[in-house]
Amino acid sequence: MKKAISIVSLLVCLAVILCACGGSGLSGTYKGDGDISEIKFSGGNKVAIKMESAPGISMTGTYAIKDGEMTINYSFTLFGEKAEYDETYSFEQKDNKTIVIDGQELKK
After folding, report:
1. I need a surface site. Which of 21, 48, 91, 104 has the fewest CB within 10 A?
2. Integer CA distances (angstroms), 59 to 19, 46, 67, 79, 95, in order
């Protein structure tokens, strides 16, 4: 079980890259063709992430953006076990409809 959680965590790190959010208060849903298939930002710096590599697993948490990096504190449940992680990814907001998280472009 720990191995499965580690694998999902690694995929999240590589992809979530997941999360394109911003301390500036990102909002709305962004979609991409990479491992992060969808990331949704809402009030209170909340984020929900869907990953291509982890279908059926919903990752939720909070985010902060500072100095071109996005830090996401997220959690998910796998096989009845809850896992929590803090991950930091490179982040760029190209315009009002495009963000880049860890090299993956996502669009509104």
Report:
1. 48
2. 10, 11, 24, 14, 25
Give how many domains the chain has, as a whole number: 1
Q: Show the domain range for 27.
A: 2-107
User: Which domain CATH number covers 46?
Assistant: 2.40.128
For residues 74 and 54, is the Cβ–Cβ distance under 8 A? no
* Cα–Cα–Cα angle for 25, 37, 43, rounded to 5 degrees: 20
**What does pTM read for this prediction?**
0.71
Name the nearest CA neighbour of 61 among 16, 11, 104: 16
